[in-house]
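Input record (Table S2, row 327):
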Amino acid sequence: MTEKQMPQTIDAEQATHLLPMDALINHLRGSFVRGCEVPPRHHHTIPVPGEPDATLLLMPSWQQKSENGGLLGVKLVGVFPGNAARKMPALTSVYLLFDSGTGAQLATIAGDVLTARRTAATSALAASYLAREDATNLLILGSGRVASLLPDAYRAVRDVSRIGVWNVNADSASRMVDRLRSEGLDAMVVSDLEHAVRTADIVTSATLATSPLIKGEWLQPGVHVDLIGAFTPAMRESDDEAVRRSAVFVDTYEAMHEAGDLVHPIKAGILSRQDVRASLFEICSGAVQGRRSRNEITLFKAVGTALADLAAAGLAYKAHTVEKPLR
Ligand SMILES: NC(=O)c1ccc[n+]([C@@H]2O[C@H](COP(=O)([O-])OP(=O)(O)OC[C@H]3O[C@@H](n4cnc5c(N)ncnc54)[C@H](O)[C@@H]3O)[C@@H](O)[C@H]2O)c1
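Output record (nicotinamide-adenine-dinucleotide complex):
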């Protein structure tokens, strides 16, 4: 096998460097317009003796081969809850990228970095249509892997000048704020969540919350709410009132069945499919307008799509092969 045919390995550090937020957001914008094939994700339950079951999640997607090439990829995610007792991460993932015309493997990419970066970038992409143009005051709920990337992502689409960070574990919020300040940003730890929500232009949440953190009655006219965390009906970051008061947008319509933020308002008769204004595909293609007025409250709920994984993997691979030309 020649080097040209050898699959490239892109580790976490390289993937971080190869996926700067501005380039990734723009690339995602084009990818949501073009679309690609995204079959349902596969979940497999893996019994682990004496421990909670593990889950293997497969997220494939592909583009049809054309004269511009074509990519096929699959993300493999392992969730092993028993790892906590071993002080090992419960979740690990890897992304495999192939040529969709020949099946040749192109790259193996660090899946955790790819996922976190494409997730923050997808939120910022949505906000580029949904947040007010003059939004400057960003409130972040959470200080984990995804949340820590949100300042960078939002600063690529809005002139963010103040960043508040709230987390269930205040020490973790402090560490994130210290890092942001060391980068010269005006950041502060938030302890009064209600006050912070009432004064924010953008409220973005990437937590594992199972009961609402963001109350609809706190939302001020013109605010944009971005919900990243809940991915099962048992999880939610906002209450029914937040959905009732907002123009609701989703990354994909699967969010309506998967995320507690939408599942509960649907059950309560507060939200229906017709009430959801648009998916990110429809916003990016221009089929549906984003924010309609200064005072509208907008809410974006994302559960993630394999399209964004494939787009990010394609961008990282292209940048990698440009930096390290193949012979
Ligand atoms: N929408 C998407 O495409 C997408 C992609 C990746 C991750 N996610 C989701 O985003 C969330 C954050 O992911 P991550 O990789 O940053 O995880 P992480 O473990 O790095 O961070 C989780 C954060 O949630 C906080 N937290 C934990 N339990 C909480 C609770 N009960 N209430 C409030 N906060 C709590 C933690 O302190 C931490 O700040 C997860 O729910 C994850 O599944 C969504």
